[in-house]
Every structure is written in C-alpha cells, then in structure tokens.
Amino acid sequence: MIKILFICHGNICRSTMAQSMFAYMAEKNHRKDDFEIESAATSREEIGNTPHYGTVQKLREVGIPLVPHRAVQMTNEDYDYYDYLIGMDTANIRNMQRIAGGRDHKIYKLLDFVSGIGRGRDVADPWYTGNFDATYADLTKGLDAFWKYLQAEGLL
Questions:
Q1: What residue ranges do the domains of the chain occupy?
Q2: Which CATH class is domain 2-152?
Q3: Residue 108 forms beta bridges with which residues?
Q4: How far is CA 70 from the centre of its chain?
C-alpha cells in the first residue's frame, strides 16, 4: 500500500482538492486498494473546518466526489507513517521540513513531478485569488505526473 499525504497551508483548499482528485484517479484506474490518501495543513488556522466552498463547488462541477474531511495539522509522526508527503508550494515545503524535524527525503512539491514548463512552480492558491479553476488545472497536471512517476518507479 502506498501512503500519501497531500499538504497545504490550511487543508481546506488545495490539499483537500488534491486528496479528492487522487482518490478519484485511483478508483477510476481500479487501484483504490493500493493507496491510503489523506491531506493535512502546515498551520493550525483551519483545524476542524470542512473544505472551502470553492473546492466543493469545483469538484462538483467536474464530477469528482469530495472525500469527507475536516482540516488537520501535519505532525512529525506523519513523516514516519506516509511514503509521500506532497506539498503545494515552497512555503509548505519549508514548514513540512520544520514539522518533520529537518527530515525531507519523503517530502515533495507536487509540480516538481511535472516535466518541462511548470516544473517547480507552486500550485495556485485559491485562498488569495478565488480562482479554483487555476488550482484545479495545476493539480490535474501535478497529479497526472505523479501517477506517471509511480508507474515509472514500478509501484503501479
């Protein structure tokens, strides 16, 4: 089983959307039982809150079921438990490394899996822009590339 934790600042927009999208990808590809997929925040600001209405609306618009979720914060123990801890932006990565006590071999930025243009960029943060379409587009590119990475590694 491949254990994945998607992480953003508050765990109500990007990481929750990524969790739902990747769970849907796994189900569509008949690989649901190969994964444990969760999401978390680097901050405590939204702990206990449900996904942002923009995330809910965008997923509904594209026909992807929302994974039932309430925001939680990443812990040091998550680093030991999960195989992949995938952050959405550079600030997330720094905070993830801090929470993990400086360990970072399992920490990735999602768009680093994308080759060519877009590699290394941050996933658009709809909290500031309100543009959930841009976030969805970034996540689609990143999650597709991550799926291909897992296949290339012989994990799928």
A1: 2-152
A2: alpha beta
A3: 86
A4: 14
